[in-house]
Each structure stands twice: as C-alpha cells, then as structure tokens.
Specification:
Elements (H helix, E strand, L loop, with lengths): L2 H15 L6 H8 L4 H19 L3 E4 L1 E5 L27 H13 L4 E5 L12 H13 L6 E4 L2 H11 L3 H11 L1 E3 L10 H7 L6 H13 L4 E7 L5 H20 L6 E8 L7 H7 L6 H15 L6 E2 L2 H12 L6 E4 L20 H9 L5 E3 L17
Parallel strand pairs: 1-9, 1-10, 2-3, 3-4, 4-5, 6-7, 7-8
C-alpha cells in the first residue's frame, strides 16, 4: 500500500473513532481495501466501536422461525425456497400446524416468533388478503399473548396492500393493532434498483422498501434492516445501501418517531441450490467469509452511531463464521430459530437450529459474556452470565 492510501484509511478510521459519521465515499475506500494491514486496522476499529456503542456482552434471542408457506407469485433469481402451488415440496401450513409450532417454541422458552412466507395469491379469508394475515396473527397471539410476533416483511406489506387496494399505513396499523410487535427488514436485498432488476425484478423497488419501513417507524412498529450481499453488487452499491439505511434511521430520530431500526444484519448469498442463472453468474456456492467480515466491519463503522446492534447470520456463515464476526463489529449472535427453510433450501451449511448452549459456548469461546435479550434488545433476567473460561 502506498503512503497516500495508508494515510487515507488511517484518516477515515480516525474520524470514526472521534465519533463522526464517515461519508459514503469513505465507506467505499474502506470496502475496496485489499492490503492485509489496512483490513486489520478496519477490523480493530470496528471492534473498538462495537465495544463503545454496544458493550462487551454478546446478546442472543430464543426464537422460532415459522415460514407459513413457500407458494409464491414471484421468481427471485437467488431463491431456492419458492414453489408454485402443486409443485413437489410446496407447503402451506394451516392454523393447527402453526399453533403446534408456537406451542413447541413456548415449551422451549422462546420469547419471539419470526413469521414470514411466500406471496401466495390464494391466501385470503373472505376474499381479503389482510383478513388472512390478521388471522395468522390471531392464531398465535390468542393462545400465546406473551410471545413477541416479529412478522411480515415490507414485501409482504406491499403484497397485502396491492391485493386489497389498501394503503401501506392501513395495513401496518391493522397488523400492529392485531399483535404484530415488529417488522423484519428483509426484502431489502440491495437497495439499488439496477441490482434489483437482475436479482428480484418482481419485488418492490428501493424507494418502496424505504417508504414502508419509514411508515412502520412513524406508526410505532420497530423494524430490523438487512443487506443481501456477496452476489453481483459492487462495493459502491454496498456503500449506497448503507447510506440509505443510515438516512432512514436518521429520519426516524430527527422526526422523533416512536420506533426505529433495532439492528442491522448482513445476509451473504448462498448459491448452492439457488436458480442456475444467478448461481453461475456469481460462480460459487457459499459465501466468502473474508469479504463478509470486511463488510461487517465497515457496516459497524458506518452505521454504529445510529444503529448500535449488528448481527451475523449463522445460518449462512455457519456458527464458526458468525462467531468470528463478533470480532468484526457484531454484538449479537442472533436467535435459536429452531427451524429455517429459506436459506437451508438454498444449500446453506449453518443448519436451521442452534441450541442456547451452542450460542453461549460460541460467545464464551471469545472470552465475552453473554445475555439473553428480547426482540427489541432489552436484557432478560437480572444477571449477565459469566463468560466460559
């Protein structure tokens, strides 16, 4: 690395350590680094900022993932999960099956159900899409009111609104009032429409995703935020995605909205069983850990002042990779999930379930303390657990 490049990286990292928000151009400089010393400095800075912004305790949530159907009207080029009705492997859970899964989650001390599914045009009650989704909520909340329901992505909100000719705010308010506690920030993929036209041309555009998440914040529904990374997007497109997420959070803060983004999660592309055209274009089946870790660190540096909670995906990276990400800016290791279909059907190596003990042991292997949390990052229990020696 030349002396000028080194000075540039050092100056950017110094600004971040002085608690300034770095610019999108500066994030791009960091993302483009190949020099091992520069990357080591980025990792060290991200780890230090994580300690300042979120502390040394690593959190986790006991949750269950319920994908209620994989029948979907759309054809995203990265998705191995979707099926047409009648296809082999297509499923659509009924109320009894969903209640059975929720009952099992409560038996295993879950505090959260994360529920998402395909966009099934037949999923209506009395001819209305919203009525069907409200019934899904009641199926869980009527029996288990104590469970936090983290449910229905911005894409699902748009789908319901489009099917029933309703506004986004009406749909979000109705789901919130029925018992949805927060919205997954999935379907973001990469918030760049040139990328979206290739990987998810039938999905909502970037502006619509941002509008729906911003509306949720205004209506008091917390959300998460994500990025599907490591496929065809460029470093610049990654940096612009981070810029849009940070701006969205800044808007919620500036306007004193009752809810914000609670966490940022990188979702590296798994191509092993994904549709062939994108898989062949990307040219590999599993994420490149080093690339994901650098993006993890830059995400912490860029977003951490406004979004202090960062989480890796053990489903996509494996538990060892997710544990390493805790050294690159992440302060949370995610949830137990209990079952996961969307990524495992794409050929992910991480599995669909982790025990609490596995998550605790992974955290403890770094000499860090661990603590159970709820969906919106409140600690559960009085005492933090001691790290494993």
């Amino acid at each position: 690395m030349s002396e000028l490049e080194n000075t540039t990286v050092d100056a950017i990292l110094d600004r971040a350590l002085q608690r300034y928000n770095i610019s999108t151009a500066e994030a791009l400089v960091l993302l483009q680094q190949k020099d091992t010393d520069a990357i080591a400095s980025i990792q060290k800075t991200a780890d230090l900022l994580r300690r300042r912004q979120s502390g040394d305790t690593v959190t986790y949530v006991i949750n269950r993932n319920i994908n209620f159907t994989n029948i979907c009207e759309q054809h995203c080029s990265f998705c191995a999960f979707r099926r047409n009705e009648g296809d082999e492997g297509a499923f659509w859970l009924d109320a009894a099956q969903i209640q059975e899964k929720a009952t099992d989650a409560v038996r295993r001390d879950a505090t959260e159900i994360c529920m998402q599914g395909g966009l099934n045009v037949q999923a209506k009650l009395n001819g209305k899409s919203l009525s069907y989704y409200l019934q899904l909520v009641k199926t869980i909340k009527n029996k288990f009111p104590q469970l936090h329901l983290h449910a229905f992505s911005p894409q699902e909100i748009e789908f319901i609104a489009r099917q029933d000719n309703l506004s986004f705010s009406y749909v979000i308010s109705a789901l919130r009032d029925a018992g949805v506690g927060s919205m997954p920030g999935t379907a973001a993929e990469v918030l760049d429409d040139a990328v979206r036209r290739v990987i998810c041309p039938e999905k909502i555009d970037s502006a619509t995703w941002l509008e729906i998440v911003g509306t949720a914040h205004r209506l008091g529904l917390p959300t998460t935020s994500t990025m599907l990374c490591g496929h065809i997007e460029t470093a610049m497109q990654q940096a612009l995605h981070l810029e849009k997420v940070r701006s969205l959070q800044q808007t919620a803060i500036n306007n004193n909205y009752p809810a914000h983004i609670t966490e940022f999660i990188l979702l590296p592309f798994v191509g092993q069983d994904a549709p062939a055209p994108l898989r062949s274009r990307v040219g590999r089946d599993q994420p490149v850990l080093a690339d994901t870790l650098l993006l993890t660190a830059v995400s912490r540096i860029f977003l951490g002042n406004l979004i202090p909670n960062h989480q890796p995906s053990w489903v996509k990276l494996g538990l060892a990779g997710a544990t390493e990400a805790l050294r690159w800016g992440c302060n949370d290791i995610g949830g137990t999930l209990m079952e996961e279909h969307i990524t495992t059907m794409a050929g992910a190596v991480g599995g669909g379930c982790q025990s609490v003990e596995d998550l605790q042991n992974a955290i403890g292997s770094l000499g860090r303390t661990y603590q159970q949390r709820d969906t919106i990052y409140r600690f559960l229990g009085v005492d933090k657990f001691a790290a494993i020696s």
